[in-house]
Amino acid sequence: MKQSSLFDIISPIMVGPSSSHTAGAVRLGLLSRNIYGLTPKKITFKLYNSYALTGRGHGTDKGLLAGVLGIPVDDTRIKNIFDLHEANEVNYQFEFLEDFNRHPNSVDFIFEGTQKMTVSGDSVGAGNVRITNINNFPVDLTGEYNSLVLIYKDRLGILSKVSGIIQTEGVNIAAMNCERIAKGEDASMCMSLDCALNYSIIEKIKRIDDIYLVRHVGKLES
């Protein structure tokens, strides 16, 4: 008789023994994948604290890799993710660290390719997650809303131009958070939206002067 593992018992609702360490890890990976928006040549996963100490046993490493490969939480392929063809097409590595200034279940995704980007996030319990930082800019992305993420040069008129384009298309802005290094320096904007943006809206925003990065991050499935 084949002995069942925790991975087998909990599938297919969630592959893995822990909502924070496995389902949360997959969701963090999916969000970071959408934020990067490109095909990376290399990914470094930096796991902190509880993620670093117990991550391997709980399948956190598998979940993180699955997410950045676009594999959803309930996909049984996560159990054997390291053997998949998709995984072998990416150069990836894991680092396990301790930093008590970070959340117990915290991770950095360092993407390298045509662009380099660092995305940081936390798994906050029951499969819920929060992206907290993109390239050293504080953000607040949970995957509960369709979101627009921008990095741009801080100057008068950027906010009104972006929000004007979105509202003209009949899309409601549920929440918005902006951060900047200093007046006139690089800044970031994160908008939570009541529905997804179509391609034409995103292209209009990309054409605004002094915007360096535009990412539409879709709402995660429950």
List the helices and strands and how they pair.
Layout: H1 6-10, H2 19-36, E1 42-49, H3 50-58, H4 60-68, H5 85-88, E2 91-97, E3 105-112, E4 117-125, E5 128-134, E6 137-141, E7 146-153, H6 158-168, E8 173-180, E9 186-193, H7 199-206, E10 211-217
Parallel strand pairs: 1-2
Antiparallel strand pairs: 1-3, 3-4, 4-5, 5-6, 7-9, 7-10, 8-9
Helix pairs in contact: 2-4
Give the structure's gist in a few sentences.
Helix content is 29%, strand content 34%.
The CATH superfamily of the largest domain bears the name: D-3-phosphoglycerate dehydrogenase, domain 3
Q: Which word captures the global form?
A: globular
Structural class: alpha+beta
Query: How many strands in all?
Result: 10
Number of domains: 2
* Beta-strand percentage range: 25-35%
Q: State the CATH architecture of the largest domain.
A: 2-Layer Sandwich
What's the SSE pattern? HHEHHHEEEEEEHEEHE
- Quote the average pLDDT: 89
Low-confidence runs (pLDDT<50, min 5 residues)?
A: 1-14
- What is the CATH first-level class name of the largest domain? Alpha Beta
Description:
With 222 residues, this protein is of the alpha+beta class. It folds into two domains: 6-135, 60s Ribosomal Protein L30, Chain: A; 146-217, ACT domain (Alpha-Beta Plaits, 2-Layer Sandwich), CATH 3.30.70.260. The protein contains seven helices and ten strands. It has helices spanning 6-10, 19-36, 50-58, 60-68, 85-88, 158-168, 199-206; strands at residues 42-49, 91-97, 105-112, 117-125, 128-134, 137-141, 146-153, 173-180, 186-193, 211-217. It has a six-stranded mixed sheet. A four-stranded antiparallel sheet has the order 8-9-7-10, sandwiched between helices. A hairpin with a 2-residue loop joins β5 and β6. The longest helix is centred in the N-terminal third of the chain and has 18 residues, at 19-36.
